UniProtKB/TrEMBL annotation:
Pfam hit, one: RasGEF_N
Cited InterPro entries: Ras-like_GEF (IPR008937), Ras-like_Gua-exchang_fac_N (IPR000651), Ras_G-nucl-exch_fac_CS (IPR019804), Ras_GEF_dom_sf (IPR023578), RASGEF_cat_dom (IPR001895), RASGEF_cat_dom_sf (IPR036964)
Organism of provenance: Callorhinchus milii
Keyword ATP-binding carried by entry: no
Chain ranges of the Ras-GEF domain: 204-434
Name of the protein in question: RasGEF domain family, member 1Ba
An individual GO BP term: Ras protein signal transduction
Record-annotated N-terminal Ras-GEF domain positions: 34-164
GO cellular component, one term: plasma membrane
One annotated GO molecular function: guanyl-nucleotide exchange factor activity
Coiled coil stretches, renumbered: none
UniProt entry keywords in alphabetical sequence: Guanine-nucleotide releasing factor
Length: 452
């Protein structure tokens, strides 16, 4: 079976180098190299370069980059059908008498290619046409070589599990959104019904940071698949699951603001602010930059920042350090430095906790979007600009590495349920302090009446 490298190591070089990985004769028909790096090629030649033969298997770097970018030029199910046809023609699989020796050498390589495709881009196979083509190929392979029947079955079962997870994630999102809407309606009509707050549910800020990391890692697992599927990022803003992930960021920000503004007394609000500062600091230590940024955003909202007397009761040194780390100036230079440090720690880590890297997702999407918009997909001669897609794949591959980490923290269903469904006020920031403002007004009237 051809050996493959991890995502963490496969993009360390400048580009795809033919002398490192080209196992067949140096035939560059339709492909253009610069300093031994593949920079462009016709679609037909690039597809041909993906198809394994008896003595050649494409490098994983090339497989990932081409499968990621090819959907701009050919639909995945059409690509799979074309690969199948090329294999049949090249290996003469339709002939009455087959060379079983050659078949035994070729079969492991096409099996490996299918495994890499289903593992890296499972979302492609939600298309029934794609699944039908896959079944046709696996049936053909099993017919030619009985030894790989079990491998094909395991691959298919693994793919089905991944697709089931994606479907379940979407169902959960739908149910959570409905639950949040219902609870928010109750909050607006009966504010006195609020009996719980985040500190009551989880008094330990470190535990809350760990539960936030659970949510982020589950989301990332599904989101990166969808990023890869969406035509190299040109339609990212139209993708419902990506919108849901952005909504999660916004929800966490408004949850922080709501929790801070709800208490009537300044000392209680100050306690909640200090609590979220500790949560944010632990998110930073874990490597959960998305939750960190969401918390900082919530604490910088106008309803929170204007609580001057409350902030006066707090030692803000820790918060100032966190704000400095996520400072947007110089294109988020401080954050990018911290992210590189976390990524380096992940590469040399001995535990899953040290491997966790959850980037600030909105900035990642922005980086990918501008890289995509800044370069043409095709060159003047009609060739596909493979050099551009190499850079895109390099960015996405880092995220692919980070998504593979299993969360080492124990799940707390009660805390997770609260984080995902607790009612928060809408984007109209004037609504956020409405409940505690009504309480203040009521207390003020009583106080004035007593004085009178």
């Amino acid at each position: 079976m051809p050996q493959t490298r991890t995502f963490a190591t496969m993009f360390n070089s400048r580009g795809y180098n033919r002398h490192l990985y080209l196992l067949k004769e140096d035939n560059c028909g339709g492909l253009f190299y610069h300093e031994n790096n593949l920079v462009s090629g016709s679609l037909e030649a690039l597809i041909q370069h993906l198809v394994p033969t008896i003595d050649y298997y494409p490098d994983r770097t090339y497989i990932f980059t081409f499968l990621l970018s090819s959907r701009l030029f050919i639909r995945p199910y059409e690509l799979l059908a074309k690969i199948c046809l090329m294999c049949i023609e090249q290996q003469r699989l339709n002939e009455a008498v087959l060379d079983k020796g050659k078949i035994r050498k070729f079969t492991p390589k096409i099996v490996q290619l299918l495994i890499e495709w289903t593992e890296t881009f499972p979302y492609d196979f939600r298309d029934e046409r794609m699944m039908r083509n896959l079944k046709d190929m696996t049936h053909k392979i099993a017919t030619l070589d009985e030894l790989h029947r079990k491998t094909m079955h395991q691959m298919t079962q693994s793919l089905i599990r991944k697709l089931t997870t994606l479907n379940q994630y979407e169902d959960v999102l739908s149910k959570l959104n409905a639950s949040v809407t219902d609870r928010l309606t109750v909050l607006k009509t009966k504010p006195q019904s609020i009996q719980r707050d985040v500190v009551t549910i989880c008094s330990d800020p470190y535990t809350l940071a760990q539960q936030l990391t659970h949510i982020e890692l589950v989301s990332v697992l599904c989101i990166i698949t969808i990023i890869s599927y969406n035509t190299c990022f040109s339609d990212l803003k139209k993708t419902s699951n990506l919108e849901a992930y952005v909504e999660w960021f916004n929800r966490l920000s408004y949850l922080v603001a709501t929790e801070i503004c709800m208490p009537v007394k300044k000392k209680h609000r100050a306690r909640v602010i200090e609590y979220f500062i500790d949560v944010a600091r632990e998110c930073f230590n874990i490597g959960n930059f998305n939750s960190l940024m969401a918390i900082i955003s919530g604490m910088n909202m106008s309803p929170v920042s204007r609580l001057k007397k409350t902030w006066a009761k707090i030692k803000t040194a820790k918060f100032d350090i966190l704000e400095h780390q996520m400072d947007p100036s110089s294109n988020f230079y401080n954050y990018r430095t911290a992210l590189r440090g976390a990524a380096q720690r992940s590469l040399t880590a001995h535990s899953n906790r040290e491997k966790i890297v959850i980037p600030f997702f909105s900035l990642l999407i922005k980086d990918i979007y501008f890289l995509n918009e800044g370069c043409a997909n095709r060159l003047m001669n009609g060739h596909i600009n493979f050099e551009k897609f190499w850079e895109l794949a390099k960015q996405v591959s880092e995220f692919m590495t980070w998504r593979q980490v299993e969360c080492p923290f124990e799940r707390d269903r009660k805390i997770l349920q609260y984080l995902l469904t607790a009612p928060v006020f809408s984007e109209d920031e004037r609504r956020i302090p409405s409940v505690f403002m009504k309480r203040h007004t009521f207390r003020s009237i009583i106080f004035q009446n007593n004085r009178n």
